[in-house]
Amino acid sequence: MLLLQYIVSGVATGCFLILATIGFSLTRHVEGFLNIAHAQLLGVSAFSTWWINVVLGWPLIPSAIIGIFCAALIGLVIGRVVYEPIRSAGPAILLISSVGVAHILGGLIDTAIGTGIRTLNIDIATSYRFWGIRITDHQLLVVALAVIASASLSLFLAKSRTGLAIRAMAVNPSLAASRGVDVKRTSRATWLLSSSLAGLAGVVLAIIATLSTEIAFEQILQILAVAILAGLGSLFTVIWSGLIIGIAMDASVFWIPAGYRPLIAFGVVIIVLVFRPDGLSGRRSS
Amino acid sequence: MNWLQVILTVVTIGSIFSVVTLALNLQYARGGMINFGVVAYFAAGAYIYAIFTHPAPEGLDQYIIGLDWPWWAGFIAAGIASLLFAVLTGWPTLRLRGEYLAVTTFAFAEVLYSFLLNERRIGNGAVGLSNIERPIRDWGTIDEKYIFAIVAVALMFLTAWIFRKLLNSPYGRALDAIRDDEGAAQAIGKSAKRMRLQVFLLSAIPIGFAGALYAMYMTLVSPRLFTAEVSFIVWIALVLGGERTIWGAMAGTFGLILLEEVITSLPFESVSAAQNAAAMNHVVTGLLFIAVLRWQPFEWISKKLEKK
Amino acid sequence: MKKLLQVSNVTKQFGGLRAIGGYNGLSFDVDPGSFTGLIGPNGSGKSTIFNLLSGFLKPNSGSIVFDGNDITTAPPEAISERGLARTFQTPRTFSSLTVIDNVIVGADNPGERLRFSWTGKWRNQEAELKHEAVEIFGRVGLSHRVNDRVGDLSGGELRMLEVARQMIRKPKLILLDEPTAGVDPKLQQNLADLLIAIHRKGTTIIVVEHNLHFLLDLVDNLLVINRGELLAKGSPEEIRSNPEVVSAYLGGQDAAQSYKN
């Protein structure tokens, strides 16, 4: 029974990881590198939401919207100023640059917010019981948001013109360019989209967790784990990977000390990579 | 501010970290391997040195092994430990390319960190082991801190010399060929897999020694000395110095350590001012990092020099 | 006579489509000391065959035996060590090495062992290899380029450089993938002379070439590939008079054109 409880909370954790990773995966597909600074955008949104909600005293929803807006804007600007000029330098240089970006954002958040633990000014979670399993309304919110976000993202990618352009770029950037896709515009649309998703995940993080300035760094580990596990697959492999890692992390508490929980994510990744060097999807990057 | 003290610290810490940067330079700039978990090999060396030289546990100690061996045995063991950790991590992961290797090495470092933090039987968990054996004492009239700086510099130059010899030999040339075009190198009989593993293992040994030296210098090992931050600092140093050259790797490390030492030794009026300075330090290093990667001034300089 | 290379029933699929081998798989063999041309229309699988022989691709079925050793699943570097050399369709060179180092690095160099890095024992071989490389440069007509940077070489010179890098390995069999593409006539003549010379010394050669004018003067054997299958084989004369080949390949506009040239 306890195990089942852990699995249920693992699904919620997994849904948060999905929210945090889909934006990351999107940039990875389109821009072709692992953007380590993605998690700092979660931090940007989480702390702007906190600041507006607690310091200015606004209600949650408008605070959250402004928080997401901040993350989207900053993500777009960084994409334009930092990554766009070095696109041709290759994934390794872009990856290493993003570590620099993560340092800058982390430092700025530290300066602006300072140390200490912060929570939003909202009602604490109420829990419901179904057949003895406890679920909180916050967990349900996370699951609902993950479902809505992934469904609308996949709809957007499948139906809209920009979505089609993004998909074309992800498959083959030079081919897409030769077929009339505006590479710069599409790339910026991707930054806007992935940063907004990071912003949404940041708001969720602010709701479900207590915020400290190290939180972004802790998130990037899990985001990397999910993204690497998924490999270069579709949105659905990201969803699967998020759920697998979320459940594995939470259910592991049943057997081993909770201090090792973050390790489980990487344990899963290492095992998968040893057997499938290209992740669950098995697709190889060129 | 005591400038002499700052300079000594920069020389000592700078040399210790330079060893790690040099190893990373060999792995990345010549071997084409992105190791984002370099701190793990450093930590392995430091912890093994501590465990080998520490007395048996007593009282409130939670660690279970303390061999109380002499310092030199611990020092050798540190190099071996780092090598073994490289075997353990390199063997399954080196067939992964680029970003996958970056993430798995990063993951291994996190695994080790988490073990050191949670498994109190290794080194007292978060508390760490203090009063680490420090073999270097005052030498006649010379203070031990000078001797320490000299030893650190010597280790750095020894590492640089050994790597330089390696890279200037036909072995280094074959390594360059593999990095430039792996397929074409295979077509002339070069085993990319074997040579990468060799370089990975070889470069781990001095990192282990540097870890042992770091443990002696700090007279402490604890998980918070070996966070992922250390890996990033070494990467930033490598990029700052221009990734291709041995001198660049050392210059970048010293520059970065100097910056950090100057900031931390500035007299701040309040705690929050000091915290802000530390945070701004992050921002400045991040900006430098991006600027160097974007405009590649060192490539430019070396090209200018070559044309002359 | 014992065959140098035996390809038996090899098939290769890409994404479920059979690229090489048709129904029964591709089979052919090569005699030691022969000079074989591999021809066929674009996309007929010539480069894929080279990639299979040199270990860069693994066949889905069938076997490849080289010099008495099964190399079907061997990695490229092991195949290269056994004496099977190859060049690539687009020249692949090492951009951070000088021109001469690009050739020397090709040698099967005992001085390349890791432990010699520190003992300096590699210096003995180095002078000898340098001498050898300079000599090869003379033969391909690149002497004046020895100390240049690879980036300064023309496409044709890069191709010569790649051939030179394989020559220094003294291979038993060398696979040349379109060695004359983008090479000016002067260098082409040097190349032809070099190939004749090494062939006389006993090196077996297989060459993929669109320039039939260049090819037919050199080779003693032709293999005609179409859609991944062996369409015909024989001496240049036999192939020229084979109606099936003429209609499938030689009859094509380009081929007739280049043949006339």
Automatic annotation (TrEMBL), chain A:
Write one Gene Ontology MF term: L-leucine transmembrane transporter activity
User: Keyword annotations for this protein?
Assistant: Amino-acid transport, Cell inner membrane, Cell membrane, Membrane, Transmembrane, Transmembrane helix, Transport
Q: Does the keyword Aminoacyl-tRNA synthetase apply?
A: no
Q: Which sequence ranges are marked TM in the entry?
A: 6-26, 33-52, 58-78, 140-158, 191-211, 223-248, 254-275
Top-level lineage group: Bacteria
- Its membrane topology, per UniProt? Multi-pass membrane protein
Q: Where in the cell is it found?
A: Cell membrane
Q: Which InterPro entries match?
A: ABC_transp_permease, BCAA_transport_permease
CDD domains (UniProt xref): TM_PBP1_LivH_like
Per the record, the similarity remark reads:
Belongs to the binding-protein-dependent transport system permease family. LivHM subfamily.
Official protein name in the record = Neutral amino acid transport system permease protein
List the top taxonomic levels of the source: Bacteria, Pseudomonadati, Thermodesulfobacteriota, Desulfobulbia, Desulfobulbales
TrEMBL record, chain B:
State the InterPro entries in the record.
ABC_transp_permease, LivM-like
Tell me which UniProt keywords the record has, alphabetically: Cell membrane, Membrane, Transmembrane, Transmembrane helix
A Pfam entry, by short name: BPD_transp_2
Membrane topology according to the record: Multi-pass membrane protein
Where is the chain membrane-spanning? 6-26, 33-52, 72-91, 98-116, 146-163, 199-217, 223-240
Localisation: Cell membrane
What highest taxon heads this organism's lineage? Bacteria
The record's GO molecular-function terms, alphabetically, read: branched-chain amino acid transmembrane transporter activity
Q: Name one GO cellular component term.
A: plasma membrane
Name recorded for this polypeptide: Amino acid/amide ABC transporter membrane protein 2, HAAT family
Q: Which organism is this entry from?
A: Desulforhopalus singaporensis
UniProtKB/TrEMBL annotation, chain C:
* Domain called ABC transporter: residue spans: 5-252
Q: Which UniProt keywords apply?
A: ATP-binding, Nucleotide-binding, Transport
- Could you tell me which PROSITE patterns the record lists for this protein? ABC_TRANSPORTER_1 (PS00211), ABC_TRANSPORTER_2 (PS50893)
Q: Which InterPro entries match?
A: AAA+_ATPase, ABC_AA/LPS_Transport, ABC_transporter-like_ATP-bd, ABC_transporter-like_CS, BCA_ABC_TP_C, P-loop_NTPase
Coiled-coil parts of chain: none
One GO cellular-component annotation of the UniProt record comes to: plasma membrane
Q: Which GO terms describe its molecular function?
A: ATP binding; ATP hydrolysis activity
Signal peptide span: none
Q: Which SUPFAM superfamilies match?
A: P-loop containing nucleoside triphosphate hydrolases (SSF52540)
Name the record gives this protein: Branched-chain amino acid transport system permease protein
What species is given as this protein's source?
A: Desulforhopalus singaporensis
